[in-house]
Design a protein that fits this description.
Mean pLDDT: 90
Number of strands: 5
Shape: globular
Distance between the termini: 27 Å
Largest sheet: 5 strands, mixed
Structural class: alpha/beta
Strand content: 15-25%
Number of domains: 3
Radius of gyration: 23 Å
Helix content: 40-55%
Length: about 350
């Protein structure tokens, strides 16, 4: 948080109708990080301020609603902007390679049960030293850096609008090289085609490898030595981009393994449908990541605030906490706060 906590010698006990902007800012920011009762303790221990968790909650609901509205307005305004790689007026093309990632998590909504929330990340791509998953050697690999996030509760259409708005803010359409990396969910690739074509599309390598285990377990039994050996044999060709070869092999295996035939045919279809998204050798050689760890990390950071033990949300409160959490994780909280804050009358 760029502006820091208020000094210890500031007023120790604050009446609910005399909150300063600095205190309101810190309380809302804390609410986006931790539950309101813990926010109360932090303010007391670090800021020397006695503020009830109820007061924190009320202010957080008020200002997070304004943040939600501001982010929704930004998303609507971006809908009419050029898409499909066209340069936005006022933006300048640049050579920084950039990426988009998407995934979904779950949070408990009162009277509804567990519901999906969708998270999107926009990031730049830069080389870093990392362990090669096959050779186990330290090599230079592309990684996601400077991540920013959006999150919404519900379906893909409004989520896609929010993610496109964030991509425009980050000047993703003007990037020289563009990537969308994610798992195999249909809604993700629909949004990728709608908003981010003609970006390169890549199915997360670790997600694809899990499908190899599904096949091996169907053929040889779950967690058997034979299953692990089969995955070990097939992961190298897949890592080198030979999804088409694997598709052919699975269809041939389905002819002779009747008990596993349904799974084999389904998995053959999976690898066939995503063949163009599994050109892993080419993708790595051209400097793009083949894993979606950046969005998995993002989902975990959202879940730590919205899906902890015993947490359940009214829908309207869930719709407020997600954009608040997003602007905090994106290091945009101060900027957004300054745009929405108005002093109390």
């Amino acid at each position: 948080m760029s502006k820091g906590f208020f000094p210890l010698d500031e007023q120790l006990c604050i009446r609910e109708n005399h909150w300063s902007e600095a205190i309101a800012r810190q309380a809302v920011w804390l609410y986006g990080q931790v539950e309101d009762d813990l926010a109360e303790q932090i303010l007391q221990q670090i800021g020397g301020l006695t503020i009830s968790d109820t007061s924190i909650w009320r202010r957080a609901q008020k200002w997070s609603e304004k943040i939600r509205v501001a982010e929704a307005t930004r998303a609507k305004a971006a809908v009419g902007l050029p898409q499909r790689g066209q340069v936005i007026r006022g933006h300048v093309p640049h050579e920084r390679p950039m990426g988009i990632a998407m995934d979904a998590g779950k949070m408990n909504i009162r009277t509804e049960g567990w519901r999906d929330f969708k998270v999107g990340a926009v990031f730049e791509i830069a080389p870093r030293q990392a362990l090669d998953p096959l050779t186990q050697e330290m090599v230079s690999q592309p990684h996601a850096v400077q991540n920013s996030y959006v999150a919404t509760l519900g379906g893909p259409v409004p989520f896609g609008q929010h993610l496109w708005a964030e991509a425009v803010r980050r000047e993703f359409p003007e990037a020289g090289d563009r990537l969308v990396v994610a798992d195999g969910a249909w809604w993700i690739w629909h949004l990728a085609q709608e908003h981010f074509s003609p970006s390169r599309q890549v199915v997360d390598w670790y997600h694809a490898k899990q499908h190899l285990y599904t096949i091996a377990n169907a053929l040889y039994g779950e967690d058997t030595a034979e299953a692990h050996a089969w995955v070990k044999q097939k992961e190298t060709p897949l890592y080198q981009g030979h999804a088409a070869r694997l598709t052919t092999e699975l269809r041939e295996l389905a002819k002779t393994h009747r008990r596993s035939a349904k799974v084999l045919r389904q998995e053959a279809g999976y690898f066939e449908n995503h063949q163009r998204r599994m050109q892993y050798l080419e993708t790595r050689e051209e400097g793009f990541p083949i894993g979606s760890g950046m969005i998995e990390s993002g989902i975990k950071q959202f879940r730590s605030r919205v899906a902890g033990p015993g947490m359940h949300w009214k829908r309207e409160n869930a719709e407020r906490i997600l954009p608040l959490r997003a602007v905090i994780l994106s290091k945009r909280f101060d900027q957004v706060w300054d745009s929405v804050y108005s002093p109390p009358n």
